[in-house]
Amino acid sequence: MVHNQIWISISRYRNAKGNNLLVDKSLQFEQVDREQSWDDQIILSGIISYLVNTTMPGGSHLPIWRTDGVILAILLHAGPVVFPYYWLHRALHHHYLYSHYHSHHHSSIITKPITSVVHRFSELIIYYMLFSITTMTLILTGTASLASIVGYLTYVDFMNNMGHCNFEFIPKWLFSLFPPLKFLMYTPSFHSLHHTQFQTNYYLFMPLYDYIYSTMDKSSDTLYEISLKKKEKVPHVVHLTHLTTLDLIYHLRLGLSSLASSCHTSKWYMWLMWPLTLLSTMLTWIYDRTFFVERNQLNMLTLQTWVIPKYSVQYFLRSHENSINDLIEQAILEAEKKGVKVLSLGLLNQGEELNGYGGVYVKRNPQLKIKVVDGSSLAAAIVLNSIPKGTTEVLLRGKITKVACAIAVDLCKQGIQVATLQQYEYMKLSKSLEIISENSLILSKSYSQKIWLVGDGLTEEEQLKVPKGTLFIPYSQFPPKKFRKDCLYHSTPAMLIPTSLENVHFCENWLPRRVMSA
428-439 pLDDT, tens per residue? Predict the structure, then answer.
């Protein structure tokens, strides 16, 4: 499980960077959902291993190392396993077998490491029978050892994941140093052609039989050379976000794909991950560089998402303020150096107290050509359009931000009365707003308003006092905790994304699929 997850995370990270990619096309939710069964074969492996261990003589209490067993494993794989596999794979591409079985695997043109084990159950059984020639022979001959059994299974997993990782990384000097290696070990680009051309490059680990039976794709070497030279794509736009709650790290695109492809909800089994979660928290105190998590395409525009390795809670600690500001500034300067046109500050990276909505960095670096934006205008527009038509008064409660001020100004111009509960909120709005009429902004003593525009700071006590059917519309980027079942809670400022935005296959925090925050 760990071995596969490492491959998944590395592959997704390399896809976000864009260098050495083999198939640069959009990955969709449909493929992610279809490949959620990738751990089935691991569970099946555990069951089979347990049965062998408990029922077969020589299947338990294995020595750590036996040289004869290791040599035998190599010879068995190179002969009795490789040859039948080649012809089995060619047979699976026959019209009947392909349409009824193998097409499920080939539905993934853009291969990922877990694509390697996504097969029909009957196919998995055949593969297990084939690869068990090696392991069962070792056990039956009494030459098995932990090194030969575990080593062989790890080798099969490694080569399988490597062939489907969708980026080239095997160095050219390796084949120059030992030319016959090209017949004994394939590359990711070699097997990628099998998934795009279908009728070539059949063998999974050793291209030898593709050479012998003339089924090797003639463009194999060319694709290998081109992929090694392919450089990282320079994005037009970078969105700079950060880690939020502790368990949301698993919802990152680099994390667990099953969680990343669905909106965040609390799950009991995540508590079992707390030791690893705490370790990730400790790493954020040490690691001081942004990292890539996503790359999207919107018509001719390339977009990347970068993450500051800090959790939301760390943004509220004064001791972290300078280090966070330094990380954000470094990201802006790095984006400027790469030629990025626009950088948007996401979540708490645009805090007023932290950096004045990004203005600090622009003042420090007046020579910047990159545009630093925060999306506040769009967020305000979304909130305003979420207010039901015919509304005459709203109550604004929460931290007064640039978005809150923009909303209040527009509502006052429309003749909609804006009420506040707190004196300091009223005073801050009064100072920052040019009020259209005397009664456009009032300090309310009641909770009778049915439309509440809420930001950070809304309490449980306040929610319990509102009338039944009240509509809470957040203007902050974090949703309020829901304490009333008889009230309505709108989503945070967000929009459905256009179908032209490609390579979207994970959910942003608590938002549903194909929805993006302002």
Answer: 888 776 655 667
